[in-house]
Design brief:
Shape: globular
Number of helices: 8
CATH class of the domain at 9-140 and 171-205 and 235-243: Alpha Beta
Strand order of the largest sheet: 3-2-1-4-5-7-6
Distance between the termini: 30 Å
Structural class: alpha/beta
Order of helices and strands: HEHEHEEHEHHHEHE
CATH architecture of the domain at 9-140 and 171-205 and 235-243: 3-Layer(aba) Sandwich
């Protein structure tokens, strides 16, 4: 499976442990039946789910991908789309996905760059089977790095993107709606009757890449200090394992 992504090795390892464990438990509880995974967002680092290890263990795992119909997403999908069982492209609010067709939806590095986040999550949740897992990896709107990403001029964002993510088309829009935060995700889950099983916060700004990375880290520290911690610098990403209840009377999409 071809994937793209970035972040420090320690952050990648931490996210891998965070997501791979619940997914493996889910697969083992499925008594050997095939598992369908939907990767939501072409930048999601799918290797964090440990799918290759599951396949090596004899489990049948199919992976599809969905993203918006925009030039950057299509460029990435053009490079990696052949590695997926099925590719869905369209307006993420209305894109045609099989209802209750997936056991796991992994939404990684998508929500911070799209509008109408709640409607997008509704579409992804409707594609999830009862009892299935919604895995979210998202840049925290309330972090110093997210504020910096929103405020930087386009040419500078372009330089930073290509220095820190060589070979990956971008940068994608920096939208960061209010739902893209700890409070926003918690509110969404509560209103939709979803259960947050696990939550974690990670710092992913790489320590390599010399002066550029150092400048970004220093700038984020200054932002946090000047905002009296309103925009934090302890982490820049939020990770969630969210379960869609089996109860057919629960308030789910």
């Amino acid at each position: 499976m071809t994937t793209v992504g970035n972040g420090t090795p320690s952050a990648r390892a931490s996210a891998g442990r965070f997501f791979a464990g619940p997914l493996r438990d889910y697969v083992l509880a499925g008594l050997g039946r095939p598992i369908n995974v939907l990767q939501a967002g072409c930048l999601a680092p799918l290797r964090e789910l440990g799918i290759s290890e599951l396949e090596e263990g004899g489990f049948d795992v199919s992976v599809s991908i969905v993203d918006g119909d925009d030039p950057l997403a299509r460029q990435v999908l053009g490079q990696t789309g052949g590695a997926y069982d099925e590719v869905f492209v369209g307006d993420l609010r209305t894109v045609s996905l099989p209802p209750r067709g997936f056991d796991v939806v992994y939404c990684g590095r998508l929500l911070e760059r799209v509008p109408h986040v709640e409607l997008v999550l509704d579409r992804l949740t409707s594609a999830l089977r009862p009892g299935g897992l919604l895995l979210i990896r998202v840049a925290d709107r309330d972090s110093a790095s997210a504020l910096l990403d929103r405020r930087l001029p386009g040419p500078l964002r372009h330089v930073i993107w290509h220095r820190l993510r060589p070979g990956i088309p971008g940068p994608f829009p920096a939208i960061y709606e209010r739902t893209v935060s700890e409070r926003g995700i918690a509110s969404y889950a509560l209103m939709r009757g979803l259960v947050i099983a696990q939550r974690s916060a990670e710092r992913t700004i790489p320590a390599t890449h010399g002066r550029l990375s150092s400048s970004v880290r220093i700038t984020c520290a200054v932002i946090s200090r000047l905002s009296n911690g309103r925009f934090g610098n302890a982490h820049d990403e939020l990770l969630y394992v969210i379960r869609k209840p089996q109860d057919r009377f629960a308030r789910v999409v």
